[in-house]
Amino acid sequence: MADSGGVLRIGLAGLGRFGALHASVLADLPGVELAAVCDPDPSRVAEVGDRHKVAGRYGALEQMLDGEHLDAVFLVTPEDLHAAQAKQVLARKLPLFLEKPMATSHTEGEEILAAAQAAGVHLQIGFVVRFDLQHALLRSEIANGDFGPLISLRVKRNCSRAWFPTYGNRAHTMYETSIHDIDLLLWLIGQPCESVYALERNVSSMRYPDGCWALLRFADETVAMIETSWFVPSGAPANVVTPDWHGTIDAVLEVVGVERTASISLLETGLAIWRPDLTAQPETNLWPEAFGSIGGALRQEDRHFVECVRNGTRSTIASAEDALAGLRIAEAIVQSAEERREIRLR
Ligand SMILES: NC(=O)c1ccc[n+]([C@@H]2O[C@H](COP(=O)([O-])OP(=O)(O)OC[C@H]3O[C@@H](n4cnc5c(N)ncnc54)[C@H](O)[C@@H]3O)[C@@H](O)[C@H]2O)c1
User: How far is the CA of 127 from the centre of ligand 1 (A)?
Assistant: First the structure.
């Protein structure tokens, strides 16, 4: 640790919606100091910096890396910056937590993984769903063999139509939303993907399609179906509810094995709050805020990163190699939808 009596000094770049959540978690994790924050938007730096009494405040990543003795860095910046910024951090041999998607191309992902291996530091990609209790319980039953051979998995992640203008020019939905599900498939099935066939729709005429559907075959013959689109109407129950941002992520996972089947739905928590303006069904597992702090999977994920860095151990939960494999699958799905043909990965 950088002369800090065993306290891990972390620098966080990117203080938007999700960076602010990580800041809140990091600021009250034991043994961690949120030592520096960085964002080109001074109002974000002031807001997050003041909220958590952060001493180091910067407008650019390079300045933060030059100006601080950090033990690790969190990057929660826009998707198209991940590759260049990750390589900047890893060139300084600093452990890195990088939000999903790892990058926006497989080649960039390979470069990031190679840079982490060359630096010999822990690299963790933000696949928060692996740290959700329900998914973790399901994963351990599957890994124990309780489901028998897997037959098929279906994953759906449909989002509010009102959000699409924010994302439609930002990243292809396979990298933005379904990358979580691709990662879940790799984790639950534990086999490489052999081929994909995909279709997409572009109704809004933005840069990226507003719907994409893919059929995947894994090496053990398990079949997976991915669905993602941005057409959930504003009248749907809202499971993302903040003072300035609300809407719905309609995410479902279904597993069919020879012996058992299972399903998880992000909308079914049992909690429903009827308000004059909307019906809220707040998500309670991923990053719930209660008792003055953020808990759930996001806290587990950040704590796990800190433990890996502190103990110098490899993660048994979050695999950077799987994150890279996921990018290859996302890329093949986009190509398949564009070329309207099956893409073989092996
Ligand atoms: N794991 C999850 O479930 C999850 C959920 C939401 C977002 N994310 C990911 O988190 C990342 C950020 O998403 P968001 O929703 O917070 O986006 P956002 O647009 O709300 O915030 C991005 C922030 O990065 C800042 N920024 C821009 N350029 C920068 C630079 N060069 N250096 C430092 N900061 C810079 C922006 O000013 C902004 O404050 C994305 O990769 C996104 O995919 C992950």
Answer: 14
Q: Which residue has the tokens 């729709």?
A: 201
- Ligand 1 atom at minimal distance to the Cα of residue 286: 3
The CATH-assigned architecture of domain 129-288+326-344 is 2-Layer Sandwich (3.30)
Nearest-atom number in ligand 1 for the CA of 16 is 21
Inter-axis angle of helices 17-27 and 42-52, nearest 10: 20
- How much distance in Å is there from the Cα of 86 to the middle of ligand 1? 14
Q: Determine which residue's CA is closest to atom 21 belonging to ligand 1.
A: 16
Ligand 1, residues 47, 64, 76: which to mutate, most atoms within 8 A of Cβ? 76
From the alpha carbon of 166, which atom of ligand 1 is closest?
Answer: 19
* Ligand 1 atom with least separation from CA of 44: 39
Q: Is the pTM higher than 0.85? A: yes
CA–CA dist 342, 226 (Å, integer) = 15
Q: Ligand 1 centroid vs 214 CA: distance in angstroms? A: 26
Instruction: Tell me the pLDDT tens digit for each residue of 63-103.
Output: 999 999 999 999 999 999 999 999 999 999 999 999 999 99
| Ranges of each domain in the chain | 8-128+295-316, 129-288+326-344
| CA separation for the pair 13, 58 (Å, rounded) | 9
Question: Quick one: which of 224, 252, 219, 244 has its CA closest to 345?
Answer: 219
Q: Which residues line ligand 1 (CB under 6 A)?
A: 13-19, 38-41, 44, 61, 76-79, 81, 99-100, 126, 128
The model's pLDDT over 112-164, given as tens digits with 9 standing for 90+, comes to: 999 999 999 999 999 999 999 999 999 999 999 999 999 999 999 999 999 99
Domain at 8-128+295-316, CATH homologous superfamily: NAD(P)-binding Rossmann-like Domain (3.40.50.720)
Report d(CA 174, CA 106) in Å as an integer.
13
12-59: per-residue pLDDT in tens?
999 999 999 999 999 999 999 999 999 999 999 999 999 999 999 999
